[in-house]
Specification:
Elements: H1 2-17, E1 29-33, E2 37-40, E3 56-59, H2 60-66, H3 75-88, H4 103-108, E4 113-117, H5 120-126, H6 131-139, E5 143-146, H7 153-170, E6 176-179, E7 183-188, H8 191-206, E8 219-221, H9 227-235, E9 240-245, H10 247-252, H11 256-259, H12 268-274, E10 279-281, H13 288-306, E11 312-315, E12 319-324, H14 327-347, H15 358-366, H16 368-377
Parallel strand pairs: 5-6, 10-11
Antiparallel strand pairs: 1-2, 1-4, 2-3, 4-7, 6-7, 8-9, 9-12, 11-12
Helix pairs in contact: 5-14, 9-13, 12-14
Length: about 375
């Protein structure tokens, strides 16, 4: 039974992980559990490349004891203490693996299989002004809605409380959980049950969508040898730069007002891969000297304001540039920015975008867990 279940977990992980409608870059996680053991995706690993041995085996008895402990109020100290207890809950022989940060959340959901993803279509709902109201109208008592919450222990605690309330009210556990500014968790005792929940969620949301982002007319210059690329690379200390423009981006970079829907983070994954502070620069065409001056001034002002170099730079009437340590990470920045573009277009059906609260953005930027995930994924 265990062998079959782990193979099923591997198969469903690969399937959702390879589908860009559900997972971008290293996002999302999956699990399988029996009475004693939780098998959870390793932190920073790719769902699309899942293998049975890459899942981390966790002792569910030890995980359950975490709920009985009192932890520090200070976020950094709290997450450090919880992480230590979670690492101590690994089954013997798993000491070289690091479980997903959402291990506690996976363990508390009373289903054999749990699949957590960040579909742009779903996040068009969860990252919108009217998302909670629309979710209630579309799904009623089928779903649990969790307001914007820092990931980690606090999120797990909040989901536990919401699940207890839901179960008491409806007489059954909630199988579909929407996380505002984050994504979706789906649980079922079979992989086909997970698929059915996802199918219903996606098809239901599609009935309300007004517009999809127009990604046609794409121009992508991977060697990025133009003047703006050279200037940005120099400002970033020689980092790799990639360029992207399509019909949707052409509209967004008309001016700062048009750029607003993608001017701040919508979810944690956008921060990890595309940064929390996209730079928009109004530069004139043709005059390299003036372009250089304005880019340098905007870059310096951004770094002084945020303490971080931007991973995305948008130039008026030109396009968007991804910046990273190597060509791959520059491309990932553009990939996650494109995901934000899709989310913003979907969110128009639900009152427009709702950015992550600044305090949550700060938490992600300084959280050791995300720094670790970035390192493993080769983002930094």
């Amino acid at each position: 039974m265990e062998f079959t279940s782990i193979q099923d977990l591997t198969a469903i992980s690969r399937r959702y992980g390879a589908d860009p409608d559900y997972v971008i870059a290293g996002g999302g996680n999956t699990s399988f559990k029996d009475e004693t053991t939780l098998y959870i995706k390793g932190s920073g690993s790719s769902l699309a490349e899942a293998e049975p041995e890459r899942f981390v085996r966790m002792d569910r008895r030890l995980l359950s004891q975490i709920w009985e402990k009192a932890y520090p109020e200070e976020p950094g100290e709290r997450e450090k203490a919880v992480l230590a207890d979670m690492m101590a809950a690994r089954v013997k022989g798993e000491e070289q693996k690091r479980p997903s940060v959402e291990t506690l959340l996976h363990d508390l959901l009373p289903f054999a299989f749990v699949v957590h993803t960040h579909p742009a279509l779903v996040n068009g709902l969860t990252c919108s002004q009217e998302g909670e109201q629309a979710a209630a109208e579309l799904f009623g008592g089928e779903i649990i809605w969790i307001p914007s919450t820092n990931p980690g222990y606090v999120l797990s605690r909040r989901v536990k409380e919401a699940m207890d309330t839901y179960t008491k009210r409806w007489g059954r556990p909630g199988a579909i959980i929407f996380l505002q500014n984050h994504g979706i968790f789906v649980g079922a005792d079979t992989t086909s049950g997970v698929d059915e929940h996802y199918r219903r969620v996606m098809e239901t949301i599609k009935t309300r969508i007004k517009r999809r982002a127009d990604l046609s007319g794409e121009v992508s210059v991977y060697d990025c040898s133009g003047a703006v690329c050279r200037i940005l690379s120099s400002l970033a200390g020689g980092k790799a730069v990639r360029f992207l423009r399509n019909n949707e981006i052409a509209f967004l970079v008309r001016d700062s007002r048009s750029f607003f829907p993608v001017s701040a983070p919508l979810s944690p994954d956008h921060i990890v891969y595309a940064g929390s502070d996209p730079l928009f620069v109004d530069v004139p065409a043709g005059d390299v000297g003036e372009i250089t001056r304005r880019l340098e001034a905007a870059w310096k002002q951004q770094v002084e304001k945020t303490g971080r170099e931007p991973k995305i730079a948008a130039v008026r009437d030109l396009g968007v540039f991804g910046i990273g340590g190597v060509d791959k990470t520059a491309g990932l920045a553009l990939e996650l920015f494109t995901d934000a573009v899709k989310v913003a277009a979907y969110a128009e059906a639900f009152g427009g975008v709702r950015f992550m609260p600044p305090s949550h953005v700060d938490f992600i930027n300084t959280w050791e867990v995300e720094q670790y995930r970035s390192k493993v994924a080769g983002v930094n």
